[in-house]
Structure formats: structure tokens, C-alpha cells
Write a structure and sequence with these properties.
The chain is an all-alpha fold. It is built from twelve helices and no strands. The chain has helices spanning about 5-15, 30-35, 40-60, 65-85, 90-95, 100-130, 130-155, 170-175, 200-215, 215-235, 240-265, 275-280.
């Protein structure tokens, strides 16, 4: 092969975002092969996500509903926020509840976008960033997994279930479908699993992923707006305290740490594309004739 052809191939591979293999996959350890980004398989991903969410729901709802401890912890969180000067959830809750169209929209936002946007981002990664898909998905899974530990160790009642009736359960008042822990659905979900907030953990994951990888400026801006709006919604509907959101962000930081430790760098720094199986088996050194 002429030297010029090798240079062109090198440049094309760099533009594709595909790493340059300097040796074949033979001889590498199984662990090293597991850490190598590869093209995701649709059937496997659908099965994995379905099983993972089923397991998450099963474990989350199997955590004992420790009502007394959950209400005691809620009182403690509320006192801490008052001491910090950030206990404005009640004011936000009452203000939004006075605008019917706004609070009804927030109820449906809370019930639907949590799943719709997260799945949408996963599909986008699968189609457009296959080399980063598995690592970014690992962040989401690790974040959700450590959240289950929080639900078990720290039962917490949401503001709307606190004693005293200071907060308004907007779903009950406006008779909307917006919370698995209100109305006829309350027996299907653990009502005292508010810390950490996975509405925040998942939405910040979506926002960071969109901001880091999207090429259209206004889409990147939307990526940042989405978790900010989600924070307002979870507080306005009295489903979470501010500090629940902090817990969600800490879980997400743990998820990024797990992915970075496994892949050796942050998911967004991995190549966008991956070579197919035939190209991975090919030994190719740049610049060799």
C-alpha cells in the first residue's frame, strides 16, 4: 500500500471517531474485551432495560414502608432546610397550586417525562453514539442501583405526606394522574422512598448527555433546561425536598465514577463509533505499506 493511501485511511478513521487498533483482539484478557466499547445489540438492550426497571421497581417497592421513621426523617430534613434558609418548598407548592393549568401540567410532567425523556436519550445514544452507549448506560444503571440503597437505609416521606397538612398533594386536589403514590395507585409504590430523587438523578443524566453530545446549540440548551424544570416540578408538586435533589445528584456522581473506573475515562470521551467485528479482528498499523 502506498504511504499516501495509509495517510488517507488514518484521517478517515479519526474523523469517524473510531480508535485505531494496533493489534487484534486475540491474546487480550476477557476483562479487557469487556471494557472495549462495542456496537450494542437491540434485542439485548430492550431485554436488559426491561429487566433492570422491573428489578428496580420490585426492590424499591419491597423496601419496608417505615412510616414512623419516614415522617421523622421528613421533619428533620425540613428543620435542616429551615436552618439553611432554603425551606421554600411550601411557598412554591402553594403558589403553583393556585394556577390550575400550571399545576395540572406539572402533574403530568412529573408522571410522564421522567420515563419518556430518559428512554428517548437512550434510543438516541444507541443510534447516534454506539461507542458511548454502554458506558453512558452504565452511569444510569449505577446511579439507580445506589439509589435503592438510599431507599432502604433512609426512608423519607415526601412533603405532601408530612403531618400537619401544610403541603398540598396536587394530584389529589386536582384529580390528575401524576404520582404512583397518590390516589388509587398508592398501594403499587413505596410512598416513603423520596431520598434520593431519581427524577433529578435521571433528568441530570439526560441533560448532561444531551449537552455534551448534541451538535445543535438549541438542543444543548434544552438539555440544561430539562433538569432545571424537573427540579421546579418535584418541589412544586410536593413530591420532594430540595435536599432529595442533592441526593439524586450525589448518586449520579457515583454512577459517573463507576463508569470512569470501568472504562478508564468518562463516557463522553469515548469514541462515537465502534468498528464492526471484522474490522476489530484486523491487525492494522497506521503508516505501514
Amino acid at each position: 500500500m502506498p504511504m499516501g493511501d495509509a495517510t488517507v485511511r488514518t484521517r478517515e478513521r479519526l474523523e469517524d471517531g473510531v480508535p485505531h487498533p494496533v493489534a487484534g483482539t486475540t491474546g487480550r484478557s476477557p476483562l479487557s474485551r469487556l471494557r472495549t466499547p462495542r456496537r450494542p445489540r437491540l434485542w439485548f438492550e430492550i431485554l436488559l432495560i426491561a429487566l433492570s426497571y422491573w428489578t428496580y421497581s420490585l426492590v424499591r417497592n419491597a423496601v419496608p414502608e417505615q412510616r414512623t421513621a419516614a415522617l421523622r426523617n421528613a421533619d428533620w430534613i425540613w428543620r435542616v432546610e429551615q436552618q439553611l434558609g432554603i425551606a421554600v418548598e411550601e411557598s412554591v407548592n402553594h403558589a403553583v397550586n393556585s394556577v390550575t393549568w400550571l399545576v395540572v401540567g406539572m402533574n403530568y410532567y412529573y408522571a410522564t417525562l421522567h420515563f419518556v425523556v430518559t428512554l428517548g436519550v437512550l434510543v438516541w445514544l444507541f443510534r447516534s453514539h454506539p461507542g458511548r452507549y454502554a458506558a453512558t448506560r452504565l452511569v444510569l444503571f449505577a446511579t439507580t442501583g445506589v439509589a435503592l440503597v438510599g431507599y432502604y437505609l433512609y426512608p423519607l416521606a415526601p412533603p405532601r405526606l408530612m403531618d400537619g397538612g401544610h403541603f398540598i398533594d396536587t394530584v389529589m386536589v386536582h384529580q390528575t394522574w401524576g404520582s404512583m403514590a397518590s390516589g388509587d395507585l398508592k398501594n403499587m409504590s413505596n410512598q416513603y422512598a423520596a431520598m434520593p430523587s431519581m427524577h433529578i438523578g435521571w433528568s441530570v443524566w439526560c441533560g448532561l448527555t444531551i449537552f455534551a453530545l448534541a451538535s445543535v446549540p438549541w438542543v444543548r440548551v434544552l438539555g440544561l433546561v430539562y433538569p432545571a424544570l424537573t427540579l421546579v416540578v418535584i418541589v412544586a408538586t410536593a413530591n420532594h425536598f430540595w435536599l432529595d435533589a442533592v441526593g439524586g445528584v450525589l448518586c449520579l456522581a457515583f454512577g459517573f465514577g463507576v463508569a470512569a473506573a470501568w472504562y478508564g475515562r468518562l463516557p463522553y470521551a469515548l469514541p462515537r463509533l465502534v468498528p464492526d467485528a471484522a474490522r476489530r479482528r484486523r491487525v492494522w498499523l497506521p503508516g505501514r505499506a
